[in-house]
């Protein structure tokens, strides 16, 4: 199990914010569900620990890209802090996706060039 954890790639700096924004595009959710969504949709490859998630969530709230509100979870009868994507966050997600696509394409070109040489 230890080797499997060591083989996992680390998130590139700045990608966690984009992944959080993308996760919230589907609707409001709480922190633990955000980590589970990222883990599940990445086929268990990406793991986000709470020590990285919550500072990122606070940073995104400060920037106005997401909002946070305590709400009662009906099934569990307790309150969770739910995060929602703001209109400003939607615009930022579009910008981040565009930058990511450009960066991935550039890296792909470099890798393919190296293979041809």
Question: What can you see in these coordinates?
Answer:
The chain is globular, with a radius of gyration of 17 Å. It has 117 residues and is α+β, with helices and mostly antiparallel strands. Helix content is 61%, strand content 15%. The protein starts with a helix and ends with a helix.
SSE layout and pairings?
Blueprint: H1 2-7, H2 15-24, E1 29-30, H3 31-41, H4 50-63, E2 66-73, E3 78-85, H5 87-116
Antiparallel strand pairs: 1-3, 2-3
What is the compact description of this entry?
The chain has helices at about 1-5, 15-25, 30-40, 50-65, 85-115, and strands spanning about 30, 65-75, 80-85. With about 120 residues, the protein is α+β, with helices and mostly antiparallel strands. A hairpin with a 4-residue loop joins strand 2 and strand 3 (about 80-85).
Strand content is 15-25%
| Helix-strand string | HHEHHEEH
Distance between the termini: 38 Å
**Helix content percent band:** 55-70%
Specify the oligomeric state.
single chain
What is Rg? Answer: 17 Å
Number of strands: 3
| Unreliable residue runs | none
Keywords:
117 residues; alpha+beta; 3 strands; 61% helix; three-stranded antiparallel sheet
